[in-house]
Structure formats: C-alpha cells, structure tokens
Amino acid sequence: TGIRVELFRSGGSAVISRFAQEIGAGRIAVDVLTTSDPAAAAQFARRGIFVPFRPRNFDRIPAAAKHPEGLYVAQRLNMLCIFAREDKIAAADLPKAWTDLTDRKYAGKMVMPDPSFTALQLMVVGTLSQKYGWGFYENLRANDTMIVQGHQQVSDVLKRGERLIAAEGLDSYAYDDRKAGHKIATLYPADGTFAVFSPTAIVKGSPSPNAARAFAEFMIGDRVQSMFPEDGHYAARTDMAPPVGNPALGTLSLIAVDYDFIERDSKKIKDRFNEIFQ
Fold first, then answer.
1. In the predicted model, what is the mean pLDDT of residues 233-244?
2. 108: left (phi > 0), else alpha (psi -120 to 50), else beta?
3. Strands (E), the chain
4. What pLDDT, on a 0 to 100 scale, did the predictor assign at position 177?
5. Side-chain half-sphere exposure of 87, counting CA atoms within 13 A
6. Are 232 and 172 in contact (CB under 8 A)?
7. What pTM does this model have?
C-alpha cells in the first residue's frame, strides 16, 4: 500500500500495559493493536475501545479465534507445548505429558518463561494451575526449573545446552531451531497442547482509521497468512496448511483456555507464580 508503519514490539504483558496506560491517560497513539492475549482483547472489546470490522477473509477465521462483530480477529495461532534436546535425552526418557515434568529425573534440566512478561505463558500457567493445582508449579520449582524472560530466551538456553527441556515453549521457535540444524524435538503433550490466538484490533479514535483497516485486512490476507506456516506458526485461517512437518491442527488434543478467568485473575496468577519461583 505504500503506507509507512511504525512498530512497537515487546512481550504481550508489556504491550498491554503500555496500551492501557495510554488509554487511561486519554491518549490514543496507536491505530492497530496485535497481542498474544485474547483475554485482554476481550476486556478491551467489552469496554468499547475497538472498532467493529469484518475484513475480507474474516469468514475463514475459526469462530473461537475472533469476535463475532469483528472487534478483534486472530492474526495467527500460537502453539504452546514442550520441546527438548533430542540429542541429549533418549526418546524413551522424553516427557509425554505436562504432568511428567514433575518427575525428579528432570531436575535441573528445565526452563520456561515468566508469565509476568509473556501473555502466552500467563495463559498456560493460569490454565494448568486450575487443572492440576499450584502443587504442579511447586513441584517444578522443586525440580530447579529455570525462569527466563520470554520464549526467545527459552530457545537460546536450549540451544546453548544450559537446559534440555522447555517446560513450556512456543513451537515456532523450536521449528526455526530445527531449520537451523539444532536437534530439538517438539512434544505435543498427551494431556493437551495450547493453541492461543493472537488477536488484532482497530483502536477507536485512532489517528489513521482508514490505514488501520487496510492493515488489519492485510494481516489476514493471502500474502501474510501464507507466511506464517513458512515461519513455523499456524496461520489463523482454516484454509492454510500447517508448517511443513507439523501435525494438522485437527489431529492435536487441545486444552481449552478460560480467557475470562485469566483476565479476571491475572494479577493473582502472576503473584502466586512469583511467590513460588522467587
């Protein structure tokens, strides 16, 4: 389109925090908001902060990954699972489920990101602490699980061999690492993989509303959506293939996320996690 785009990029929680501060100050400085936090997007939508918009290809996005009126729509799907250095751990010893990670044989071998930084990990921690209780994370702490800032750092730690298992990781990083020649296997847990969508929304009262619509439509157009599988992500559109070598979405057991609960209790979830791993 020739429209110049200025980008602010950070962890999901940091993006939401900055946006909320600007909104609270009555300053609309952004046209389009894309995050990895469906819970926050739903809350902003309820507050009337987004503009309804049903762009071309809107009908090709699953109902669970968009607002029915178009107040937000998925840009991509984030597959959150376990991955490991398969050159350092025998196949028979690899974890098969989230609950396997509490086994003492994995002590000192695991790393995962901080839910106070990345909204994706917040979804996982909130859901698994509901499903298995906080004892699950207390056991991971007892297993000397390393906490790093975000998913890039998880990937870096595994590549350096400092830790061998991502106790929660973003599959697209493992995909890129494999392409680069690293022996990292993605493990889709038997008790469920997370497929968290990244919503895109147009901000009401933004400086460039027409350009915002063009950009939001571009994000679910053929060109962008076909790029995601090439980069190891699952596209938001149902007519796009999965990344090469990855299982089709429909073949995976997925864990449902209660986004309303995550949004309502996000501070409690972060505080409890920090209490355990401080």
1. 92
2. left
3. 32-34, 50-51, 73-85, 110-113, 146-148, 165-170, 184-187, 194-203, 234-235
4. 95
5. 9
6. yes
7. 0.82
